Predict the structure.
Amino acid sequence: MYEYLEGRVVDCGAARLVLEVGGVGYALCVPVGADFGPTRADDRTPTRAWVHLVIREDAQTLYGFPRREERELFRSLLGVRGVGPGVALGLISGLSHSELLDAIASEEPKRLQVVRGVGRKTAEQIVLDLRDKLCVLEALLGTAPSKADREPGQALLNDAIAALVSLDFSEKEARRRVEQAAQLVEGEDLERLLVTALTS
């Protein structure tokens, strides 16, 4: 429904932002410490927030993020069974992107339990559900915390897999195609790798 909102910040708190857009004030729940740029009420610089709307029987809540990539991470967390908006926002607020993805990559759910509301079962479910999407998340966020990412060429493969997933390939199929294509393509050429993966 909403992709982003752009307007003037009229109020902000630790985890809340009010953005005036066309004379309407939108209250957004935001990650603690999120950097939206100038947020003084007297600053006329437009502020953009990438948003996600959660509709429940008793409320409609907008969640806002300074970068689209952070919103996609939030949405990925929402896709995990047992993770609601509050827990997803808490994970993004309480852990850096690298810490979060590294905990998933190393399959150490206990590291996620430092966030309030994340118990053992929820942490294990996050690792279980997101470990196969790890390379896509890493490419999306521009982080490389896992051991695999430190291997030569792995970042290129992750970028290619993420690109195929964005074209509606499943994670499994995207990985299979990219790994096969990598055996046929020499050098660090993402475009050639993608064309080969798409046509082989």
The radius of gyration is 19 Å. The CA atoms of residues 96 and 186 lie 34 Å apart. The longest helix spans residues 154-166.
